[in-house]
Amino acid sequence: MIVAIVILVVVLLALAIGTIGVYNGLVKRRNAYQNAFAQIDVQLTRRHDLIPNLVETAKGYLRHERQTLEAVIAARGGAVNAQQVARGNPGDPAAMNQLAGAEQVLTQTLGRLLALSESYPDLKANQNMMQLSEELTSTENRVAFARQGYNDSVMAYNTKREVFPGNVIAGAFGFTPAALLEIDSPEQREVPRISF
């Protein structure tokens, strides 16, 4: 009888320790992807802060291209709003989709602005424009790197919450799946073509 009680206590203790370990692992993974999103947030804020300077620099040269400048400003506003929503709940599928879509629109309108600037030699040669374009390119690379880190953290978290016994603990304690921040642009997924 005492042996059975001791065995039962040992089994219950092992289950409790295992549950605590899995729970703590899920919390660590969730914190890791939320921290990874914070890195994206920093880089997107930097990107969004560069855009008004870029537009202001281009304004003097692109007087006849007001629609393009207004489209960039509107796209930036949409991206900033989507970023604030995602910041409130990183990993939420709706927030991540909204952020990805808004950033896609911003990237496209910025691309039009930069392509348009190629048609204006004085603007293209402007020192401020060159510096802002370089900073924007550098920031785009940082955003891509941060997004990769975020997606890796989300994948590790989702895997941990989907495998046994994590799926049981995750369901019992309300750990919901996190969404990746994916690129919808096919041209950004293509391998760059280099010709000699």
UniProtKB/TrEMBL annotation:
UniProt keyword terms in alphabetical order: Membrane, Transmembrane, Transmembrane helix
SUPFAM superfamilies recorded: LemA-like
Top-level taxon of origin: Bacteria
Membrane topology according to the record: Single-pass membrane protein
GO terms under cellular component: membrane
UniProt cross-references to PANTHER family, sorted A to Z: PROTEIN LEMA
Name of the protein in question: LemA protein
Protein species of origin: Amycolatopsis thermoflava
